[in-house]
Amino acid sequence: MEYLIGIQGPDFVLVAADNVAASSIIQMKHDYDKMFKLSEKILLLCVGEAGDTVQFAEYIQKNVQLYKMRNGYELSPAAAANFTRKNLADYLRSRVGTEPLRSNPECSMIYFSNRDSGGVYLPKRAPETCREQGDGPDQIKASQTPYHVNLLLAGYDEADGPGLYYMDYLSALAKAPFAAHGYGAFLTLSILDRYYRPDLTREEAVDLLKKCLEELNKRFILNLPSFTVRLIDKDGIHDMEKLPVAPK
Amino acid sequence: MALQDVCGLQNPPLFPQWSAPLLRSFMPEDSTHLSGGGIHGEAFSARLPGRGSLSPLEFYMPIAEYLTKSPINFGQSSLSSAPTCLLNIDHLHPSLPSISLPPPTPCPISPSVPLPFTLSHGTTTLGFAFQGGVIAAADTRSSCSGLVACPASPKVLPIHSHLVGTTSGTSADCALWKRILARELRLYQLRHRRRLSTGGAAKLLSHMLHPFKGTELCVAATLCGWDGDDENDKQPITDKYENPPTNQTAASDSSSQSAGTAPAASQPLVATTQQVVQSLSKICGPRVIYVCSDGLRLKGGLFSVGSGSPYAYSILDSSVYWGMSVQEATAVAREAVFRATYRDAYSGNNVDLYHVTAKGWRRRERENLKEEYYREKERERKRVAERKSEKKDVKCDDRDV
Known about the structure:
The complex is a heterodimer. Chain A is globular and about 45 Å long. Chain A is of the alpha+beta class. Chain A is 28% helix and 29% strand. In chain B, strand 11 and strand 12 (360-368) form a beta hairpin. By secondary structure, chain B is α+β, with helices and mostly antiparallel strands. Chain B is 39% helix and 17% strand. Chain B has helices at 3-7, 31-47, 64-69, 82-86, 95-100, 171-192, 198-209, 244-248, 253-269, 309-319, 326-343, 369-400; strands at 125-130, 133-139, 142-144, 147-150, 156-160, 163-166, 220-227, 285-292, 297-300, 302-305, 350-357, 360-368. Chain B has twelve helices and twelve strands. Classes of the chains: A alpha+beta, B alpha+beta. Chain A: InterPro entries: Ntn_hydrolases_N, Proteasome_beta2, Proteasome_bsu_CS, Proteasome_sua/b, Proteasome_suB-type. Chain A: It holds the Pfam family Proteasome. Chain A: It is found in: Cytoplasm; Nucleus.
C-alpha cells in the first residue's frame, strides 16, 4: 500500500514517499508526510502499521534530539541508524516485566506528569497475544510488543558523506545505495538495479525516481497520486516539488 | 487520579469519579458505593440531558431522564440483565453487558459472503472545516450484532466549549475516553491557564490510547474544534441554532468556566486579535483531527468515519469547499449523513449536527431522517411531474408552430 524509495548519490541522498494515509479502503488523507526529521541532515521515512509508525518514529526523533541537547553535538546517520535498529530489535522480543533499556515502569504516567527520569522514555504497549479475561495490560506474563514498521534512514555526515540505511520490521539493517519499501518495491527495484550508477548527478537521480514512479503508476494496482520528494546534502534537507504522476 | 487507576482495574474501565479516588474494589454489585456514585451519576446525567454520552452504540441501557427527553419514545428493555435496569445509575456500568454480550465487532449480515472490509464501526460520522468554523455530524443508530440497540444515541459528544468529538467504534469506550480526555483538558487548562489546542488534545488522546493497542478497545474519533484565543467572532452566525450552554447544559461545568477564564488567559498570550483566515491557519482557526485507537492520528480538513463513511465521502468530496456558507455546510453535512443512512444498514434514524466556531459549539435540533427521505421522494415526484409537463408544453408549442 505504502511506498518508500531512497537513492544515494556521491554527495546527496534522494528520498521519496507516497502521500496517502489510508484506513481500510478509504484514502483518509492525500497529503500525509511520512518523513520525520531527526536532525538537520537526517530523515527517517517510516511506513507500517497504523499507530506504530508515528509512535516509533516520534520516539526515535525525540531521543535523537535529546542526545543533541545532552551532548552538544548531533548523532551521525550511522549512529542514528544503529540506535533505531537497536530499539526496534529490543521491542521485537520484549517482554512485559523485563523492560528493555532503562525504562520507566510507570510510563503510562508520562503523558500527565513533568518528571524527567533521566532515562529514555519508552512507551509501554499492550502486548499482542491474547490476554486472560479481565487482566489489565500490566499483568501479562509472557508476550511481545513489537513495532511493525519498515524504515528508511537517510542522512549526510560531514566525515562519511551521504548514507542510506534500509531497515525492516525485524530490525535488519543494511546500508544500501538504493532501497525501497512496500509492494511498489517489487516493481521498482529492478529499474534501480538497471539504471543506478554510483556517480549519479542530482538530475539523473530525479529522472531515475521519475522512472520508478511511472512504472508504479502503470503497473501497481493501487492509486498513489502524489509523492513527497526530499534531497539531503551537505547543506541540509531540501524539499523538492511533489511528484504528481498523472494517471495514464 | 491518573490513568493508571483506570488501567489498573480488573474490569473494563468504569467512569472515574471526579471527586473520590477510584478504588480497586469498585465492583458494579457494590450498591453501597453506588449510592455515593449515584449522586454523582445523577449529577452527571443532569448536566447532560439528551446528550446521553453514556448511552452506548453497541449496548443500550435505559436512563429514565434520557427517555423522557428522547424524541423517539421506546419502551424496549435493555440488553443487559433486568435487575440492573432498575438502578438509575446503571449507566455507570457499561461493563456489565460487555461481559455477557458478544464482542463488539458485529457479525456480517450474510456470513457466507466475504466483506470487503471489516464493518467494525457501525455508524456514519463526519467532520469538516470551512470558513465559518467546523461542522460535526453523525447519525444516531446504535447497532449490536445486526440489531438496532438504540435508535437515538448521540454520537457527537462535546468535550469542552470549543471542542466536540464524533465517536465511532465501541460506544462505552468512546464515552469513557471522551470523558477522560475532557478531564485531562480541563486539568491542562487549570495548570497552564490556556486551552489546549485541538492538535494537542488529539495527541493526548492518541498517546492515552496507545497502551491499549492490540486489545479490543475500539475508538475512532474525529475531534472538531476551534483553536485560538479570540472569543469575539468576526462573522455573525446567521442560522437559528440552539444555544448550547443554557439549553443543553453543556459538557461540564468546565465549559462555562473555561469561557470565563479563556478571555483572561488570552491577553498575555496573544497581542493582536486573530482574524478568521481563508485557510487553516497555523495559529488559530477550525481544526479537524482524526484519532483512532489503533494509533492513527491525522490532521486534515475533512474526515468521515464508520461503515457509512464511503457513502458520505462521495457526497462531501464534491460539495465541500472552504468558502461555503454556514447554511450550505449544514445542508451538505445533513445530506451526506442522509445518503449514508440510506445505503448503510448500520447507520440511520436521526442526524445530529454541531457547529463549532470561535464562540464555541452550537447544536442543531436533532432531525429524523425518515422525514427527509419522504421529503426527498416528494421532491423527486414533483420534479418528474414538472419535467413531464414541460415536455408536454414544448410539444404543444411545436404543434402550434
